[in-house]
Amino acid sequence: MLSLSGFIIVLFARLVSGGPCDNIVNVTSSWPGGHTTALLIPIKTPITNWTMIISFSSALTSLQVWSAASTSTNNIQFQLTNLSYNGVYSAGAILSGVGFNAYFNSSANPVPTVSSILFNGVNICSTVVSSSTTSKPVTTTTARLLSTATTAKPMATTTSSTGLPTKYNYREVITKSLLFYYAQRSGRLPVNDNPIAYRSDSALKDVGQNAEDLTGGYYDAGDHLKLGFPLASAMTIAAWSIIDYPIGYSSAGQLTTAQNMVKWASDYLIKAHVQTNKFYGQVGDGTLDHNYWGRPEDMTMSRPAYFISTTNPGSDLAGETAAALAATSMVFASVNSTYSALCLTHAKQLYDFAKQYQAKYSQSMPQAAAFYPSSDFGDELAWSAAWLYRATNNVTYLNDAKAFYTQFGLSNNPSEFSWDSKTAGVQVLMAKLTNDTLYKTATKTFCDSKVNQPKTPKGLLFISTWGSLRHAANIAFVCLQAADLNINPLAYRKLAQQQIHYALGDTGRSFVVGFGVNPPVKPHHESSSCPNRPAVCDWSTYSSTTPNPQTLYGALVGGPDSNDIYTDDRSNYVTNEVACDYNAGFQGSVAALQSLAVQGVFN
């Protein structure tokens, strides 16, 4: 039986459709004053470029488009053109992945509908697509959002690709989370692949001690430091989610975008590995960087680089980077075998470096200790060995992982899974690789303790004030992995979904910038706080009480305290900063939930 909420969705979908373009237009979610629409365009003859002119039955207030460039002649007619990667199609293909949020006056009656679509000059709305046609999502999609777009406020319920109900639009969350990583990119940005209008080339003079090229990578958080340890950790988790939940990404049309997001980091990590036993783990001086507020493109301060070596080793940093590159090699194994092999070569060398020269990187690189001090390195040794075993199937690495697991007491019940503490990840990954009761029991103990842990009044699994949502999302990801092993699957998936839904809006507000109801508008993030050029961006911008001029789509903010109290305040970096590692477990969990929804396993 269709639930009341499901009936309302179907009814509203009929209200916003019912036009001549129903065969092309697929309304995936709706709310008073707007709807999200995906387009399915049948390709009749081979094309190398396309332009579509979309006309609506009445005026919109704005149109937010992804996977296309967009211009408008008025509020009724909008022109979309292909981006560099999605213009070529053969006859018989379906162009999918292009879509938009349409916004209009909430009192409009009837609501605006698509009245015609001219595709390369031909009105395709009169062409009926056979119901037997299967849409194959285009996996190479980059969400290009209009800089003037209004924040989407999707209705609380949408549908998965199978038509099963999901409370939030996971596909939109995945797409926007990937946009956040675009906003964090450092170095020279591709002209044809930069959907963030306010970002351009930056930090092009980042070099090492011997003038090694260290350009590229991601800025860590709201500042402009490049920090290898949390970056590698974030990319290991991101790559893990792509390996295990590709359907989650592909059903959102974002698989290739996700792969390229990881590659932007791995390209940099490979650059930073300048010698077999020398790896640059930080670019930028924390004091100098934090004394500046402005665009990364305008930085003029000194940006020294710091490294580990045989005389100043860092097993945690080298090991985590080895894990990230081993996981990335698996992401690209069937996509680009040459690049996959390159990642694996560096992973093996870094693992050997971590194993042979054992020490904490934050002791060898004291500059890093002020930001991401390491508590130990044994978990990273076991973690990297396990990932190399998964990537190579070489039992030597498995034996190492088992030995490190015992040596460093990793059977204990950790309090978190984070950039610093990999123990919970080691436990569930080893359970997956070996099916051994030892690791499965440890994983069960960890997730059971989180299920049973008292939550905040509104339901947050609270671990730490700093980045509270990040911690909850990371635990959600581990327990989703445990559920895949059939360890208390219903309880663990319910826990994970509750934590992710808390972030998406279950408390009455979203904690993801540019998504859902009442999202944060003043994240502690320098570049998005800056107005468009030529306006000045400095500490007066930081002190402003107005929303950030740029929308940092998809960024998960730190989050509320143990009493669910949260203030959207740019100056509060504990609750309102964003970071690469904040989004990694969050995005991975959403991809897992989307994958489960598509398969009809759990909604």
TrEMBL record:
Organism: Daphnia pulex (Water flea)
Catalyzed reactions: Endohydrolysis of (1->4)-beta-D-glucosidic linkages in cellulose, lichenin and cereal beta-D-glucans
PROSITE patterns per record: GH9_3
Secretion signal, residue range per the UniProt entry: 1-18
E.C. designation(s): 3.2.1.4
Family as reported in the entry's similarity comment: Belongs to the glycosyl hydrolase 9 (cellulase E) family.
Protein name (database record): Endoglucanase
Keyword Lipid biosynthesis among UniProt keywords: no
Top-rank taxon, per record: Eukaryota
